[in-house]
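Final report, Chapter 2: Outcomes

The project's central promise was a pipeline that accepts a single protein chain and returns its three-dimensional structure in a standardized token representation, suitable for archiving and comparison. That pipeline is now operational. To close this chapter, we reproduce one record exactly as it appears in the project archive, with the input sequence first and the structure output second.
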Amino acid sequence: MSGYRAGKPEWLDPGFYPVDERLGKGMREGKEEILLVDVGGGLGHDLLMLRQKHPRLEGRLVLQDKEEVVRQAGEEGKGKEDEGKVFEGMAYDFFTEQPVKAARAYHLHSVLHDWDDASSHTILANIAVAMEKGYSKLLINELIVPDQDASWSITSMDWLMLALGAVKERTERNWRDLVEGAGMRVTGIWTVEQGSESLIECELL
């Protein structure tokens, strides 16, 4: 997926998702408050970019992934900056209970397209239980397949996912049904251009 995303707009870029307005506004004050939990976040690319592009946003950043991945993020120094760590690493299996409760936001980047609907429902439901109604948001960063005239880049990725894992990219209706089945609702969708990943914002029902 990193090769597919190369050169494409990122959700943290100016003019994409209004991060300061949607996450910064209403964020609780305090050193222990968590701004964002990146679930299955790999080496922390999105967390590093969040801190770099929105340095005035306060709050802790938490990277969750398999133990060996989190360890690699630390070994490569990707969780550190001159004044301390950018994010905290936490080994976590997203098919189990989410240990971080009431964060401002939980983030899934190119995670759910690797899983069928039943498995994705489990992942989402575990996050939903940890969210605080009226405060927490779930941010899903994934491709959305248009109902008509989908670009070749989206359809080719859909075929690739089918061939590699018997899974698929999802339409907007697919995403809404999946989210609602886990006790949440879609509160907004931001897309810069077809063929790039969209940002789907969700809250508890």
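Archive annotation: DSSP finds seven helices and eleven strands in the chain.
This record, like all others produced under the grant, will remain available to the consortium after the project formally closes.
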